[in-house]
Amino acid sequence: MAAPRTIRTLLGGLALAAALLFAAQSPATAELAKKGNLVVSFHGEIAPQRLPRTQAAPVAVRMGGKIKTTDRTTPPKLERIVLEINRHGRLQSQGLAVCPLQRLESISSSEARRVCGDAQIGHGNVTSRISLPGQGAFASNGPLLAFNGRYKGRPAILAQVATQAPLPLTYVIVFELRKSAGTFGTTLIGTLPPIASSYGYISAFDLALARRYTHAGKRKSFAAADCPAPAGFTSAPFPLARASFEFDDGRSVSAKLVRECKVRGK
Predict the structure, then answer these.
(1) Helices (H), ranges, the chain
(2) Can you give the pTM of this predicted structure?
């Protein structure tokens, strides 16, 4: 069923607001990690940075990474992305529509918006380096649409990626959502399907999550956070997120982002 006009308008407005919030902030510094000749960079931000001290408020979360080698050789293929979010940030989808995985695997981006617009929770893009016989290597940038979903009975983010010509492909990266203890309270485990790397490798990705909606008469936000500043302090540095990139040659490269939040109000 297509999303009602009011929901589509709200989602579009929220995506624009998130983009403006991120644009208004100073450029984020990416964290670099290296293993052998393999180098990955990990960037991320949360907006707004001014948040309540104890009660979670709606936010937009953005995370992304880039992969390259120091000697310009072809890097190993990325098989899994693990994103961990600080426990003061929360992802919840109670009452939000769910988009079936099977539906996203066989339709275009525009069709996905039409049939699952009421389950959309974010957007982004994926850049791949693709090699075709007789055509050499080229970069292909494809839009990413993120939807609220389920996988093996558990909450999941379904990231549909659509590559561009001359090799148009559509595939879905399933990010399983799991709760964990310690500094990072939410883990997103993204497994890349074989089709995502059959003709090349993913060299960069960017994912922004933000969605407000109404359930049982109450306003809710898919992403929410508070600022864990101690009493008497108006700001606090904190580990925002950690990413691990796992490759088919057995290497795993991890990087952690430390950011600062400011307390809103008293």
Answers:
(1) 5-24, 101-104, 109-116
(2) 0.85
